[in-house]
Amino acid sequence: MPAAQKAVYFYAHSFLSEDDLTFTNRERLLTASHFKQVFDRPTKLSSEAFTVLSRENTLGISRLGIVVTKRNVKRSVDRNLIRRIIRESFRLNKAQLPAKDFVVIFKRPIKNMQRDKIRHQLINLWNRAAEP
Is the domain covering 3-130 a CATH 3.40.47.10 domain? Predict the structure, then answer.
């Protein structure tokens, strides 16, 4: 595990309970109707590689949906890697997020993107989403 990742892991464990570091089915957008609600009237945040759409929910928790298209990322291995990175980033930052449904859309090919750059962009987006 890289040093930066270890630092985030230990920092998160220092003040969060074990339950706060999980990613359960309750925290996922699973159906087309859940995604449609977010797509109808979203609040948008974007970076070089991502667009994050969000919308208030009444559940009292943050939920995540992920869109990584085959058009942007040809190989399934790469699509799955991006999804894992997004889920990990959400899981580590969900304690600071408001009760909203989030859909993260990966919008550009991964050929020249480094994993650290992807993680950094996601952290910046989560921080912006947490602002009032």
Answer: no
